[in-house]
Amino acid sequence: MRILVTGGAGFIGSNFVHLIMATNPGVEVTVLDAFTYAGERASLAGLQSSVHIVDGDVTDPATVDRLVGRSDAVVHFAAESHNDNSLAEPWPFVHTNLVGTFTLLEAVRRHDVRYHHVSTDEVYGDLALDDPARFSETTPYNPSSPYSSTKAGSDLLVRAWVRSFGVRATISNCSNNYGPRQHVEKFIPRQITNIIDGVRPKLYGDGLNVRDWIHVDDHNRAVWSILEHGRIGETYLIGADGERNNKDVVERILVAMGKDAADYDHVTDRAGHDRRYAIDSAKLRHELGWRPWFGDFDKGLMDTIDWYRANESWWRPQKAAAEQRYKHQDVVV
Ligand code: NAD
Ligand code: TDX
């Protein structure tokens, strides 16, 4: 099988490529990545000889058509992925997430190639802290940010291309991922690398916002399972029952790194900050037999801390620019 992995130099995409190369040696992988600020060649270190890497844009129809035409399946990870960036400058999100998905859909339609669309639980909006509900495949779309609205729009394009043109596609909506090779702009790596640098972690607002954490390898094993066994036209939610508030997470990181649990600052809240995400992954578990392997959050967090400690050369070049983008938000409240 020949797979085209878009965004394969990003956080989740690169971990997907490492996982597939380790577990399915017969699979031929081509990575299509534009190497934006979030794409790192170093994330594919050790795989260069076995993976075909193309520096190109998912919004470029000629490149996409050529690569899709010689693939059996496409797994589409490429996106502008960070909410804070989408508030500062929405256009790249509209362009990559909507036009990029459209471009891929047209190519898989032309070549009749299997397509898996990687999306987020943020398309469902948020839940109140005291709401017993969780998101499921039937929850209405209600995105809050430019990022999540463009992901929601891209999901709807996929659904329309399945129904109108018979494209062989599946969609997955996953909760917050953590693990190695995540950009330092994101919550967990930002706080780990701040602590390494002797800087106090920054918690937005009251810090009680809840995210449903899942290890990136558990997400990627689910994506592979859906690609192999998922029903065409179906959506699967991916989550590992990992609800925690941000305050709890930052305190765990501080303690795991030998600091006082109270050694952080509350800073200006994110505009429109979603309160809580929570996933019901019963469909994925019952239909495809998927289960998370990383049940122990503290262990997964410790492994992630160890990875950032051991791989400073990977993240250091990103750090100053990422912190510069946060300057306006770093007002202690
Ligand atoms: P990331 O920002 O780490 O990586 C995105 C990758 O896409 C980068 O390598 C970047 O260079 C590439 N890219 C961006 N624009 C491109 C373009 N126009 N053409 C080609 N490549 C381009 O993102 P991530 O966290 O790995 O997220 C991957 C996917 O998973 C996204 O679709 C995101 O919406 C989804 N997702 C992420 C999470 C999470 O917690 N991070 C959770 C659920 C779903
Ligand atoms: O410095 C920070 N302080 C802070 O309190 C940062 C960077 C974040 N936060 C909060 C905001 C969120 O409540 O931490 C939580 C997690 O923030 P992010 O890492 O930015 O993730 P989130 O906005 O929840 O979105 C992530 O999960 C869903 C990914 O970035 C998306 O791509 C994915 O779709």
Give a list of the ligands: nicotinamide-adenine-dinucleotide, thymidine-5'-diphospho-beta-D-xylose
Mean pLDDT across all amino acids: 97
**String of helices and strands:** EHEEHEHHEHEEHEEEHEEHEHHH
Determine the fraction of residues in helical runs and give it as a percent range. Answer: 40-55%
**Proportion of β residues?**
15-25%
Low-confidence stretches: none
Main β-sheet description: 7 strands, parallel
The number of helical runs is 11
Alpha-beta content class = alpha/beta
Strands across the major sheet, in which order?
3-2-1-4-5-6-11
Radius of gyration: 19 Å
Characterization of this structure:
The protein has a 7-stranded parallel sheet, with helices on both faces. It has a two-stranded parallel ribbon with strand order 7-10. The longest helix is centred in the N-terminal third of the chain and has 21 residues, at 91-111. It is α/β, with parallel strands linked by helices and 333 residues long. Helix 1 (11-23) packs across helix 7, helix 4 packs parallel to helix 5 (146-165) and helix 6 runs parallel beside helix 8. It is globular, with a radius of gyration of 19 Å. The mean pLDDT is 97. Helix 5 (146-165) links the parallel strand 5 (114-120) and strand 6 (169-174). It has 11 helices and 13 strands. The protein binds nicotinamide-adenine-dinucleotide and thymidine-5'-diphospho-beta-D-xylose. Residues 81-83, 120, 122, 176, 186-187, 190, 202-204, 209, 211, 246, 270 line the site of thymidine-5'-diphospho-beta-D-xylose.
